[in-house]
User: Fold Glutamine--tRNA ligase from Nitrospira moscoviensis.
Amino acid sequence: TSSSPSDFIRDIVAADRAAGKHEGRVVTRFPPEPNGFLHIGHAKSICLNFGIAEENPGGRCHLRFDDTNPTTEDPRYVRAIQEDVRWLGFDWHGDMFYASDYFEQLYDYAVRLIRKGKAYVDSLTAEQMREYRGTLTEAGKDSPYRTRSVDENLDLFARMRAGEFADGAHVLRAKIDMASPNINLRDPVLYRIRHAAHYRTGTAWCMYPSYDYAHPLSDAIEGITHSLCTLEFEDHRPLYDWVVAETGAPHRPQQIEFARLNLTFAVMSKRKLLELVEKKLVNGWDDPRLPTLKGLRRRGYTPEAIRAFCDHIGVAKRDAVVEMQLLEHFIREDLNKRAPRVMAVLKPLKVVLDNYPEGQVEEMEAVNNPEDPAAGTRTVLFSRVLYIDQDDFREDPPKQFYRLAPGREVRLRYGYIVKCVGVTKDPATGRITELHCTYDPETKSGSSQEQRKVKATIHWVSASHAIEAEVRLYNPLLVTDAAKIPPDHDWTLYLNPQSLERLTGCLVEPSLRTAQPGARFQFERQGYFCVDADSTPGRPVFNRTVSLKDAWAK
Ligand code: ATP
Ligand code: MG
Ligand code: MG
Assistant:
């Protein structure tokens, strides 16, 4: 990698190493909960955590499944997360962990806290607990159960584990300070009773640790040195430190917060993504309209573009919203360098070259990628009957329209200059069914007579050689910015009914007949497209990844 990004977190890590803190080790972790698929926001965290590990000699980054919530987690998500981290180009080099593997240790640490008088079993109802907690301006008050003896707490906690009590009957709480100005320190819950099977531990447990208890201890158990999390956990840091210190855990990881990535027009909350998938408002987690890594991948994004985007936006201490156009800029840059150019006609309009010999076929040499000489050339077939895009013809051309119109000339890319000499219409509808043109044999592309210049060059396919394809165009999933949707509104009412446009009967050059799912192309003058998994032999389906910013001959 050429130049490593620099930011305030990398500065802290470098300073810690220089000072010999954590014995000079650097161990980060990426800790997803396996309750959904990863999205572009997670990519920011992956690039940061795995990136720092790669940049520091001997550095490691753990992939840890933060799986302490039995009702929402699933092995299917575990697999998808592993695939996505690898797809982005990172590797945990064997350091894969599950928080659920620590359940026994977490239990032992809780018993330690109870023995020290630092945790107690509370038997208030959830509602009473809320009342006792107080507010931002009003101190909380102690639960009447706060003064239970150590022995009583040990006994109740053991019986909680043994399954003697119903959900909600008791919780284990840290004994910190009900008057703390930081509500997170007002005796937070460490364990809840939950008679639910866990995808890994089955019914071995009927109580589960809270995030605020399990997370710092998982970090400590694994010897994480720098625990990087998003800003909303800043107020949890004193609790993080309290848990590590009071349990006497073996290591003292350092929590550092950074701003989460927000993207305009993107649905990023896992809860909302799950709702879209479950209500079938999109076609699964890998729907190309979603900012999930599987969705972006299916749409045609490359891991390189996503990593370049993450490096570019960097890591800061203040929340900001990033424009979707910036992400699109990075995929354009990447595909411009490597996507082969092809010709495809999305809305075909038939063109007959009246003076071109019937039955003649010419092989034209086409450049695969002007940005990459090594990509070579291919042959495209030219014949008497062609298709062009409907948008490249106007019967009544407005000012500034330089493409084909009655009496006007354009160049057919890699072919000849043609002139429109007639228009055939369907007598019933008045719709144009075909154009008649003449070609100028003196103007073959690349030939020595290629003298004449015309104002526009357009793409085309040969009618008898082109193959039919379906093309899917994507527009933003939301009609407004997610941040602008009032919280009391049903956000699904803001879904864009035009987010997916399916074009059938598109015609693409025959070289695409054997293109494999995932292959990426530039459709000349239109944008970048990739072959979708829904393709069948001989009938490809393409997803538009992104349009071209600058078409070369508008
Ligand atoms: P949710 O809050 O919807 O359950 P989450 O975003 O917390 O989901 P996790 O699986 O817990 O999902 O996230 C794993 C890691 O990815 C966390 O360390 C989290 O900080 C990071 N992460 C998640 N979303 C973003 C984001 N938008 N920007 C940066 N980092 C993120
Ligand atoms: Mg989370
Ligand atoms: Mg979260």
